[in-house]
Amino acid sequence: MLDINLIRKDSEIIKQNLKKRFQEDKLEILTELSKLDQDFLKLKKEIEELRHKRNEISLKINELKKQKKSAIKEIKQAKELPNKILKLEEKQIKVKEKIDNFLFQLPNILHESVPVGKENIEIKKYGKIFQPNFELKNHAELIESLGYADFEVARKTSGSGFNYLIDKIARLDDALQRYGIDFAIKNGFKLIVPPIMLNKQSMGSAINFDDFKDVVYKIDNEDLFLIGSAEHSLVSFFKDKILNKKDLPIKLCALTPCFRKEIGGHGVDMKGLFRMHQFNKVEQFCVSTPEDSDKMLEEMQKITEKFFESLEIPYHVIKICSFDLSNKLSKQYDIEAWYPRQNAYREVTSAGNATDYQARRINVKYYEGTEKKIPHMINNTMVATSRAMVAILENYQQKDGSIKVPKVLHKYLNFKEIK
Q: What 3-state DSSP class applies to 369?
């Protein structure tokens, strides 16, 4: 969420940011925030004055007792003050909750390099586009015909968007997971196994429920939600922690199943593995100082680019425009892999700098000397295995319907082709 001090000092920055993001409908939030902030500051002043008065009365009572004089009047006043302070503090807490809710509805401040508009910009292209001289088979039909997936049974047992992966395709998924973890560790990330269920407060630290209420799965009769990304658990891992600057950056990676309600997209190529309710993902996550967060974003983006280059999958990188940028992010890159059957690039990873937006929400700080500061948080997908598998099944598909396995995965498998 945004810093209330930014609104106090220069609300024009917020107004311009909303306009650049095409979210002018949220301008009225600033008016409400200003009123609530005035109420909060007024209550804060009243509480401080009463506390000061309580201290003065306590000193006076002690002085009167030393002089062996009556302090009945002062003692009565002293007994009344705690209740008055408590009531004001309760009001202050409620006002603060409203302020925080409004602050979380306002988007992060755009990085100056973000293209303002509704068009994303291609900034890099890698690899030779695969143009087969034969008709590529749909990946879902192909692996099902080979006996390596059963989508129909999954629809019966769980519904659309789920699947059973079998033998070589299951092992390909596993190989991508292990390779993704090894790649992250080799680049300085520490592996962590996080919970895949979070309570509402923790989930709300990473996402805005108003934006994601139709995306996350709720566990009935429990204050628990299934994560849509390991990022959600990794953000929550730092809740209320006090770090030290010498320990930054903290670079973590995690492998988790991820759960999302929406599938989206239509057509035969959107079925199967590309869009699912449950999929596996290796995530990179970093907590850094504000001055290093942009450098860390670029570093993490390059790591993922090298990962897909090692798989020899063509891709391009796009810089996300202000209209499409997630509210929590100040800047974002997407890698879109080439899918020859679909004759299109499609998203496989996202890398974003949330600056202090999430960190402020979970109350994490770090010491720089004796001063407490708020760190920045950066996250990036290393690999969502389901989408990477579709890219492999299309880019490595042979005329006879077999699929070659990328060389870097050979050491994780005892086969070099799928047939």
A: coil
Q: Are 161 and 277 in contact (CB under 8 A)?
A: yes
Backbone phi, psi, residue 393, to 5°: -65, -30
Collapse the DSSP code of 63 into the 3-class scheme (helix H, G, I; strand E, B; otherwise coil) and give the result. Answer: helix
Domain spanning 4-105, CATH class: mainly alpha
Q: How far is CA 400 from the centre of its chain?
A: 41
The pTM of this model reads 0.89
For residue 269, what pLDDT band results from cuts at 50, 70 and 90? Answer: very low
d(CA 78, CA 56): 10
Q: DSSP class of residue 117? A: S
Residue 26 DSSP class: G
pLDDT tens-place string over residues 69-109? 887 888 888 888 888 999 999 999 999 999 988 998 899 99
CATH class of 121-418: alpha beta
What ranges do the domains of the chain cover?
4-105, 121-418
For residue 315, is pLDDT > 70? yes
Determine the 3-state secondary structure of 399 from DSSP.
coil
Backbone angles phi, psi at 338, to 5 degrees: -85, 130
